[in-house]
Design goal:
Blueprint lengths: L2 E12 L2 E13 L4 E5 L6 H9 L6 E6 L2 E2 L7 E4 L11 H6 L8 H14 L15 H14 L4 E5 L7 H18 L2 E6 L2 H7 L2 E6 L4 E7 L10 H32 L1
Parallel strand pairs: 3-8, 3-9, 6-7, 7-8
Antiparallel strand pairs: 1-2, 1-4, 4-5, 9-10
Helix pairs in contact: 3-4, 6-7
Organism: Neobacillus rhizophilus
Enzyme class: translocase
Subunit structure: The complex is composed of two ATP-binding proteins (OpuCA), two transmembrane proteins (OpuCB and OpuCD) and a solute-binding protein (OpuCC).
Length: 261
């Protein structure tokens, strides 16, 4: 298996109490799959992504990429955060070239940067500063920068969460085109059911307290998904039911805790 998440657990010490964020997470992801991780706030979605990125160590278990354990960040994994995290003193071109500076000569790095800026439709903005771009355009620069490293896995932590609905919809279409062109393995964290259905081959629905996998759903709706509204609605209802059950469980636990304290 290309990416193997095996018995991953994560605990944090909080005010002398141990809080379990992730419990027995097992996932196998094939090369080229687009997999969304969907769930309520606090279910450990971003923590799991951070473990795959090598930014956070699991309390137990392991993550393997092509059979090799992930213990630290590496160029084989590109990360796109909710905020673009661009260097404000650099141009768009320089931001995309930055991770290539030790791997390529300047001319080659510049050509590579332009290749991916063209892919995200920003060829006319190479000399602009980040502050001159809209939020959606800045996020496209961040995606181009991650892709320029030619990672085996693209990790995306709610990359469109801070954008307006119209911009999000446009970037969904662009990201799907990029994925169809590059066939990169993508692990995508989101709160949005519609976003996950539009983009994903699989949707991993997570529950909370502790974070667990409720269901791993293979999306069998042909692309583009907008052409199959009835199938989309049926899947939305299924996922909403899973999440509503999880919300009801949390509310019940909170009421019981309040009654006993």
């Amino acid at each position: 298996m290309f990416l193997h998440i095996n018995e991953v657990n994560k605990q944090f010490l909080n005010q002398k109490e141990v809080s379990t964020v992730l419990s027995d997470i097992n996932l196998e992801i094939k090369e080229g799959e687009f997999v969304s991780i969907l769930g309520p706030s606090g279910c450990g979605k971003s923590t799991l992504l951070s473990i795959v990125a090598g930014l956070t160590k699991p309390s137990s278990g392991e993550v393997l990429l092509n059979g090799q354990p992930i213990t630290k960040p590496g160029r084989d994994r590109g990360m796109v955060f909710q905020q673009p995290a661009l260097f404000p003193w650099m141009t768009v071109e320089e931001n995309v070239m930055f991770p290539l500076r030790k791997e390529m000569k300047k001319k080659e790095a510049k050509e590579t940067a332009h290749q991916f800026l063209k892919m995200v439709q920003l060829s006319n903005y190479t000399k602009h500063s980040p502050h001159e771009l809209s939020g959606g355009m800045q996020q496209r620069v961040a995606i181009a920068r991650a892709l320029s490293m030619n990672p085996k896995v693209l990790l995306m932590d709610e990359p469109f969460g801070a954008l307006d609905e119209q911009t999000r919809s446009r970037l969904h279409t662009e990201l799907e085109k990029i994925w169809l062109e590059t066939r990169k393995t993508i692990l995508f964290v989101t709160h949005s059911i519609s976003e996950s259905i539009k983009l994903s081959d699989r949707i991993v629905v997570m529950g909370t307290r502790p974070g667990v996998v409720l269901e791993d759903i293979h999306v069998k709706i042909p692309r583009p998904r907008a052409n199959h509204p009835q199938m989309v609605t049926k899947l939305e209802e299924k996922i909403m039911g899973l999440l509503q059950s999880e919300i009801d469980k949390v509310v019940k636990e909170e009421l019981a805790y309040a009654a006993n304290n």
